[in-house]
Amino acid sequence: MNKLLIFLFLFATVASFSQTDKYGKEISLKEKTSISKILDKPEDYVGKTVLVEGEILEVCAMAGCWMELKSDAENQKVKIKVKDGDIVFPVEAKGKSALVEGTVYKIELTKEEAIEYYEHVAAEQGTEFDSATVTGPITLYQIKGIGAEIK
Question: Residue 123: what pLDDT?
């Protein structure tokens, strides 16, 4: 009896560690593109649907409408953005691994728009932001997520 209980406990533990939660549409792409490859030449990927994988660094605490994935290259990350309410990423996913399918897009912001953007992000994350750090217009590259798997 004890061996059976131990087996069931171990099976339940392994099953909980290998659980994958799915969000949005079913992932259809098979070939992954590294985040670093996208960020090295982002213009080559604008408008293209990609499959990326990485550790979840941050999740929008207000609406779960975005998450940031760590790149395979040091000091790089990419934001996965979804339409509010279409997909809600759980804050508890931070630190887990995500596989995401989505379309790369570009955002060009004036200096004033960039300041507003970074103020909004800081408010979402509950952090401080110094507007003096924005010295001019910026270009952001993000992925519009359509489907994700979080392990």
Answer: 85
Average pLDDT taken over every residue of the chain:
89
The structure's pTM equals 0.82
* Residues 6+ positions from 144 with CB-CB distance below 8 Å: 81, 82, 102, 103, 105
Q: Rg (Cα) of the chain, in Å, rounded?
A: 18
Could you give the CA distance from residue 113 to residue 120 in angstroms, rounded to a whole number?
11
CB-based contact 26:147 (threshold 8 Å): yes
Report the C-alpha gap between 56 and 151 in whole angstroms: 10
Q: Which helix (H) or strand (E) holds 14?
A: helix 2-17
Cβ atoms of 110 and 147 within 8 Å: the answer is no
Q: Which superfamily does CATH assign the domain made up of 19-150 to? A: Nucleic acid-binding proteins (2.40.50.140)
pLDDT of residue 141: 97
pLDDT (0 to 100) of residue 1: 55
Measure CA 80 to chain center: 4
What is the CA angle 36-38-41, rounded to 5? 105
Give the domain ranges of the chain: 19-150
74 pLDDT band, cuts 50/70/90, is very high
